[in-house]
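Handoff note, outgoing to incoming analyst
You'll be picking up this chain. Sequence as last confirmed:
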Amino acid sequence: MSRKREPSTGQPQAVGDVLARYLVRSGLGPKVEAAAVIPEWEQRVGPGIAAVTEPLRVSEGTLFVAVNTSAWMMELNMMKHDLMRHVNAGKKDGRIEQIVFVMRNG
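Most recent structure output, in case you need it:
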């Protein structure tokens, strides 16, 4: 395990602990937590929805998701409230405030 010495104590510290403190001090923690929805997308929405969508990015609390067809886009817009509940389940910080569905290019 990689460790970094804490200058004030001289004791080794786990890199993960140092990184966690940095994220808190810098205010980046909620943004990192919000962005975690992208690799967790299939687990949070299920394989059926994940098969026809692709989470693209998170910006200012908005999750942008590409959708394969206009029929799916209409269906997902009707399910938006439930999807928001799933993507925010268990999160205290970095909650998604809005989901925007866009048509997939190509």
